Amino acid sequence: MTDSVSPGSPVDRKAVIDAFARRHRFKWYEALPWVLAAGCYFIFDGYHALGAQIFATILFALSLDLLIGFAGIVTLGHAAFFGVGAYAAGIMAANGWQEPLSQLVVAAAAASVVGFASGMIVLRTAGLTLLMQTLVVAALLQELANKWSSVTGGSDGLLGMKIDPIFGVFRFDLFGHTAYVYCLLVLFIGWLIARNIVYSPFGRSLTGIRENTNRMHAIGAPVDQRKIVIYTISAALAGLSGALIAQTTALVGLNTLALSKSGELIIMLVIGGVGQLYGAFIGVPLYMIAQDRFSQIDPIFWYFWIGLFMIFVVVFARGGVLGVCGRFLDRWRSR
Fold first, then answer.
1. By C-alpha distance, which of 176, 164, 182, 195 is closest to 56?
2. Is residue 92 part of a domain?
3. Structurally, how many domains does the chain consist of?
4. pLDDT tens readout for residues 52-94
5. Single pTM value for the model
């Protein structure tokens, strides 16, 4: 006679806790992106500046994936927080405060405040109304940046930005050597934050909200509060990304708040795979490298080739590159 374990028994609870602990443990393959990034520093010596922008954009895409992929909050205005972070760091640099790490802190704080304030309003809605509300927030901030030219530089952008060496030692150079390592380290910290959120009980509740909001309400979960919390955290990470771009390029303009910035970000996530935590690490490099190559091959109609590439991904790579890899591994295991 076999022993049976009733649901809710101590043994059953222990099994559930052990299962969550195993999910939270680091896997060997999670080191691959970081080993590859470190290797690229030595292999592609002339592309450090591009690499720094890729890392900063990965952080931007990762922040959006927390919303779309895990909480089910679809937005077209995520560039609002990216732009706020970029302008916060840029305004500080242009007005004499040139220490880069404190700029990151201020940028993240400013973006999180905007995220919290706007989230209290836009997250009361859903569906198409939510999309339009997030778009309006970004449009309002872009118009504010355009009109407040005495502070933001308006359509000319911020001028006179200077960034001090990191810790007074590591100076930003034209070739992007320092920027590459700097952006990679900040990305790593952002990834650790996102990973801990995803595999925590809070992160599991976000997945429940994405799958069935009504059921989460029925079991007593504070749905509205958790959506505002993840919206604020996502905004802070996007602000960090904007600050990195501002610091490493010494340029902040109205395009940081543009709709096209949010649209490109969604394209990158679709290419890599939405809701898989590592989709940003695949989609962003593929998109930015393809953009760089296509613009050199066909400087006028390069966006046509980007669109053709997107159609190919949507038709033949359902779930993005990671989705294809996952299905391939499942078939290989089944055999």
1. 182
2. yes
3. 1
4. 999 999 999 999 999 998 998 999 999 999 999 999 999 999 8
5. 0.89
